[in-house]
Design a protein that fits this description.
The protein is built from nine helices and 14 strands. By secondary structure, the chain is α/β, with parallel strands linked by helices. The strands form three sheets. The protein has a five-stranded antiparallel beta sheet. A five-stranded parallel beta sheet has the order 12-11-10-13-14, with helices on both faces. A four-stranded antiparallel beta sheet has the order 7-6-9-8, covered by helices on one side.
Length: about 350
C-alpha cells in the first residue's frame, strides 16, 4: 500500500501493539534506484505492508527478511545490487540497475516505537523535523532512533543524508508535512484539481464564498471548504500552513483578492488560471507589482501539455505545483522564465 507518511502512521498507530512490526528504511543508494534514501515502509507479522522500498520487485524478499528480524529481535542491513548477476535483486529483475541498502529494525514499546509516534504527532500538527536513525554494523545492536522537531518551520525540503558521529553511522531524514494546497474557486474545473491532490496524499482547502460554488456534494473530497470573506483567508493560509495556491475563481476581482490574501505568505507555488493578459489584469486589480511578488506567479498555470479538458488542465497544474515543491533542487520556488 502506497501512501504519504502521515497517512501511513495514522493507519499503523492504532494497531501498533496488535502485531509485530518492522520498520524498513532505504538508507543508501548507488546509481539508479526507484526509491531514495529516507524512504520507509512498515511490515506487520499479519502480512500487512505500508509503503514501498522499491518499485515492487524487492518487496517479497524484504518481507521475508522482516520475518527473520521479528524472530531474532535484531536489526539487519541488506544490500541489493541490480548489476550483479549473482545478487538476488538481479535475479528478481530489479529494473533500475543500481544498488539499494535497506535497514530492517523492530518497532515496539521497548524501543519507543522508533520515534514514530512523535513523528505522527508532529505531522498532525503540521510541524517538520529531523528523524535520525542509527545504521548498525553487522551483528551490532541498533541505538534508539531520535526525532527532533524544528523550532522554526522551514518550507525547504532536504534530502536524507548519512553522517558519521563518534564512530557511529546515522541517517538523518527531513520529515515534512504533506503539502497543503489552497484552491481559490469552487467551479466544476476545480474538482479534478482537488481529486488529483488528494490522490497524492496532499491536504486540500477549497475557498469560494459564492453560494452556487464549492457545494458540499461536489467537493466532499476536500479536507476543508471555506465560505469566509476574503479578509479572513490570509489568516487561514497562515494558520493551516498552506504550501501552495491555485487561483481559479474565473473572476478577475476574486482572483485579485485571493492573490492579495496569499501575498507575503512565502508559499512554494502560486498558480493563476487564464492567459497572460488576464494575469496582468489580476495584478493591476490587486494593486500588486508582478516582479516583486514571491514566489513568481505561475500564469498561465501548469505545464503546456496541450490540455483542454478540466482533467488534463488539472494534471498540468498539479505537475507544475509538485515540481515547485519537490523539484530536484528542493528550492520550493518557480524559476523565473527568461
Amino acid at each position: 500500500m502506497t501512501m504519504q507518511l502521515a497517512a501511513m502512521l495514522s493507519h499503523w498507530a492504532p494497531q501498533r501493539d496488535d502485531d509485530q512490526w518492522i520498520l524498513g528504511t532505504v538508507y543508501k543508494t548507488e546509481g539508479s534506484s526507484y526509491r531514495k534514501p529516507g524512504a520507509i515502509s512498515l511490515i506487520s507479522s499479519g502480512g500487512e505492508q505500508l509503503g514501498l522500498l522499491s518499485g515492487g520487485c524487492l518487496e517479497a524478499d524484504i518481507r521475508l527478511n522482516a520475518r527473520k528480524v521479528m524472530a531474532s529481535g535484531m536489526p539487519i542491513c541488506i544490500r541489493y545490487d541490480g548489476d550483479d548477476e549473482d545478487d538476488l535483486s538481479y535475479r528478481l529483475g530489479i529494473g533500475c540497475g543500481g544498488v539499494v541498502h535497506v535497514l530492517l529494525e523492530p518497532v515496539n514499546a521497548e524501543n519507543h516505537y522508533q520515534g514514530l509516534l512523535e513523528i505522527q504527532n508532529a505531522l498532525l500538527n503540521r510541524h517538520s523535523g529531523y528523524f535520525k536513525q542509527h545504521i548498525p554494523a553487522s551483528g551490532e545492536v541498533s541505538l534508539a532512533s531520535k526525532y527532533v522537531v524544528e523550532s522554526v518551520l522551514t518550507r525547504k525540503r532536504e534530502k536524507s543524508r548519512l553522517k558519521e558521529a563518534d564512530g557511529e553511522t546515522w541517517l538523518t531524514s527531513h520529515i515534512t508535512p504533506a503539502p497543503h494546497l489552497l484552491i481559490a474557486g469552487g467551479g466544476i474545473d476545480a474538482q479534478p484539481v482537488v481529486v488529483l491532490a488528494n490522490q497524492l496524499g496532499w491536504e486540500t482547502t477549497v475557498w469560494d464564498p459564492r453560494p452556487a460554488n464549492a457545494r458540499d456534494e461536489f467537493f466532499h473530497m476536500a479536507d476543508h471548504r471555506l465560505r469566509c470573506p476574503v479578509e479572513e483567508l490570509s489568516a487561514w493560509v497562515k494558520k493551516a500552513a498552506i504550501n501552495a495556491a491555485m487561483l481559479m475563481t474565473h473572476s478577475v476581482p476574486m482572483d485579485a483578492q485571493s492573490l492579495s490574501a496569499v501575498s507575503g505568505c512565502n508559499l512554494d507555488y502560486v498558480g493563476l488560471l487564464g492567459p497572460a493578459h488576464r494575469r496582468e489584469e489580476v495584478f493591476v486589480e490587486a494593486g500588486l507589482v508582478d516582479k516583486d511578488f514571491l514566489p513568481r506567479v505561475d500564469g498561465p498555470a501548469g505545464f503546456d501539455i496541450g490540455g483542454e479538458l478540466p482533467e488534463s488542465i488539472a494534471l498540468s497544474v498539479i505537475a507544475k505545483c509538485h515540481d515547485a515543491i519537490f523539484g530536484p533542487a528542493f528550492s520550493g520556488k518557480i524559476a523565473k522564465e527568461e
